[in-house]
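ok here's the first one, seq then struct tokens
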Amino acid sequence: MIPFLARRLGQDILALFGIAVIIFFLLHIDTASPARAILGKTWTPAKGAALNARLGLNHPVPVQFMLWMKGLLSVGGVGSIITRALPPTLEILGLGMLIGAVFSVLLALAQTRHAGTLFDGAVSALVGILSAIPSFFLGFVLLFVFSVQIILFPASGLAPPHASLANWAWHEVLPVVTLALSVIGPWSRQLRSSAAELLHEEFIRTARAKGVPERRVVSRHVVRKALLPFITQLGLSFPTMINTIIAVEVIYGIPGAGTALLGALNGFFFAQATTVALVLAAVTITGSLLADLAYTLVDPRIQYR
């Protein structure tokens, strides 16, 4: 396991460096002037040149990249993004994916036990609809219904730093539910499809022939085997989840990494935008690594060397 982790961490560090290079240089293809965007109507050639010199934007792009790398681990670099903007993002991402995974497993388990029934068809139609609805549209609908029409949940922002657990949960409901609903559709469909294929396997027929109750056949044999491709999908879903969390943060006005990235892009702060994108890429890579490690928990026969 340790050699595998060492190799994987080395590969991930190289991948993050490549991502940083690509993002930084792609952003500098834009010919817009950050100084003009910052100064606005007060911009003059002299003020713009002075601001570019103060921000280090008067250097060639490779030199700017090296300066950014030098300041990446400084107090105002990646550390501030991790401590200030990343926690709200991880809260919503973690809770949304956890709730989405639990309900996906429960729905797939119920469908498998009632395969071919009206309930199976109704749930399939429901998850098909959820899969087709874009996450940003789903977020706007939930916001309009439960924060504008019914006024049941807060419309934006997070709970105050020292708020009670109930107040914190009340602010988290809509963003977390939006993220969870956006993944329940594709996840439960994939898990249901894997379970349907396993129902026709030889070991399932053998278990039924031995008199094992159908509920136990589904819960202990089918679902456990179907979790392996489901974990693969979880790992592959992290890039999509990052896109979804950015939309959720913008819709609900959450000061997380997604809104920090958009703010940096709108203000042409190339170094800050690259830093936030690098942090989000690290979250994606970490999620994929955790998904790989989860294989050994589901099936102990899988060993990494």
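and now the second one, same deal
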Amino acid sequence: MPYLDVTGTFDPDSFEAEVIGLATSLGDHDSGSHLHQRGQLLYARRGCIRITLADRLCLLPPSRAVWIPPQTAHRAVMQQTVDYRSLWFRPDLSASLPEDVRVIDVRPLLRAVLESIALADFHEDWRGGRHAHLLGLCIHEICGAPQEAMLLPLPSDRRLASLTAHLDRMPPELQVLEAAVGASGKTITRIFQKETGMGYQQWRQQWRLMRAIELLATGHSITYTAAELEFSSDSVFIAFFRTMLGCTPGSYLHRSQQV
């Protein structure tokens, strides 16, 4: 039975099948940090999921999925109610999938395949016939799916621990961060460039974008989101969003909700 009681426990590594699927909804859920022997594809059908990895922050708006390779520690936080699908692939199959964490856009064909596998019996035999073709198509579609820039690298320098410990808070302006950590702007920029591949200002803008999507996807208005992220007006926020993603917040959410 793929729809499980959320108060129960579920261990995908306890099954023998090539792939295990789960379809369920959770509200205000925090998985805590954990890992699996299997690789996992987590798909946010409705709602938004924030995933914290050892060195990255990941966001899953509606219609996006994240591939998490085997033995990758992660923590999933779901605000409000999230309708999601999760597939766990046995380690030998995971070797055919990406080696690193990847956020992808779930297009109609992959969505249909995910739904079929998520609703299958936990003890299904995937080695032949229709099921083997379905599994092969799923792997092919995951590998070829368009990637989304919903991964934010995190710096590991101990001087920035206070920043990365509160990733739901607005990162301060550079001059404020200088005073807080006792390092110059040049030093902070050099740390970010080395450890994240981007300067602090670019990193902060990417954080703002991801947080904006999270707030909007969980039902907050454009006005609330703009104020929360310290934009001077709704129009300035919309212009920022369009510059970052090439579309307005409204059109982005509309496409995300076409499930």
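notes on #2: The beta strands are 19-30, 39-46, 49-53, 56-60, 64-68, 74-89, 102-105, 151-153. Residues 155-256 form a domain with the Arc Repressor Mutant, subunit A fold (CATH 1.10.10.60).
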